[in-house]
Amino acid sequence: MSSPIIEVSELVKKYGDRLAVNGVSFQIQEGEIFGLLGPNGAGKTTTLSILSTLLQPDAGKVQINGYDLAQDAERIKPLIGLVPQELALYPTLSAWDNLAFFGRIYGLRGRRLREQIDFVLELVGLRDRAGDAVETFSGGMKRRLNLAAGLIHQPRLLFLDEPTVGVDPQSRNFIFEHIERLKAAGMTILYTTHYMEEAERLCDRVAIMDEGRILALDTPQKLIGLLGGGVIHLAIPSDFISMLLPAIRALPHVQAVSPLDGRIKIETTEARSALLELIQLCHARDVPILSLEILEPSLESVFLHLTGKHLRD
Predict the structure, then answer these.
(1) Within a 10 A sphere around the Cβ of 135, how many other Cβ atoms?
(2) Taking the CB of residue 269, how many other CB atoms lie within 10 A of it?
(3) What is the dihedral of CA 67, 71, 72, 73, to 10 degrees?
(4) CATH code assigned at 131
(5) What was the pLDDT predicted at 313?
(6) Of 224, 259, 277, at which residue does a domain stop?
């Protein structure tokens, strides 16, 4: 990785009284896959739309390849390939005609246009369906053609907004493999998703978003490391909480303990060992256990740790 190709500083976007994007800042290095991970409504698509020049921010600054988004949008647009969450395809046209339309928008003509159409159709495994109407395609095939349309002009940056929503596992894996090949070829990719396993597999770095803010940003491995050995949520009758807290803190595999919404949040060095210790402690003190939830290290459990709610809420 070299210098940042995208720099975002204190980005804000409002819809009425709602802050869809609330002071978001991050940098993307050239050649990396950078993930925006969060539930629906977190602000991922709005952030992506601003970077794609489709929306004007209310405040903040964006630079892409050294160009200021507010001043140089026309220079930025040719650098970007956008693959939106909603399919941007004409269903009655063939795959070839769809790509020809998008290619001409970017100024491709004649032999170069034909070569690029053949190249991207081959890339997404649809060359044998080039003449078929898109309305005859499966959901996964439409997603792959959507990706091809974003690549038709050989962009330097690829923006992917939830590119695997509603696709079958085979098409999903196909998309993953081609994203990895594009990265290997040096393309910079901004990838939004609410599927944590996608972010863990594909992304060099991940920004976890919720309610328009970035809660944490790092490599998936370092974010998962925030949990140490895992977190346990223990629910017991409220009368026992203050009595049991000192004993829980003294357990060998417990790092930190805090009350959380009528439960006890326990950060551990090793969750399964701590779980056994907790059960033995409650049994010895005759404390009834109302519920136990163990959050072993993953991006989803990091999100729950940061926000108190599940990623797919």
Answers:
(1) 11
(2) 13
(3) 120
(4) 3.40.50.300
(5) 52
(6) 224
Instruction: Yes or no: say if 147 and 102 are a contact pair by the CB < 8 Å rule.
Output: no
Pairing, β 231-235 against β 263-268: antiparallel
Cβ neighbors of 2 (< 8 A, separation 6 or more) are 29, 30, 31
Give 173's Cβ-side CA count (13 Å radius): 2
Farthest CA pair distance, the chain? 81
pLDDT at 312: 59
pLDDT number for residue 306: 81
**pLDDT given at position 297:** 77
Tell me the backbone φ, ψ of residue 53, rounded to 5 degrees: 75, 15
Looking at per-residue confidence, does 228 or 98 come out higher? 98
CB 72 within 8 A of CB 79: no
Task: Using the 3D structure, point to which of 224, 249, 273 is the last residue of a domain.
Answer: 224
Distance separating alpha carbons of residues 278 and 285, to the nearest angstrom: 11
- Please give the residue range of the domain that contains residue 235: 229-296
More confident position, 29 or 172: 29
pTM: 0.81
Give mean pLDDT, residues 81-103: 94
**How far, CA to CA in Å, does 161 sit from each of 36, 43, 51, 57?**
9, 12, 12, 18
- 187-206 mean pLDDT: 92
Average pLDDT over residues 254-282: 91
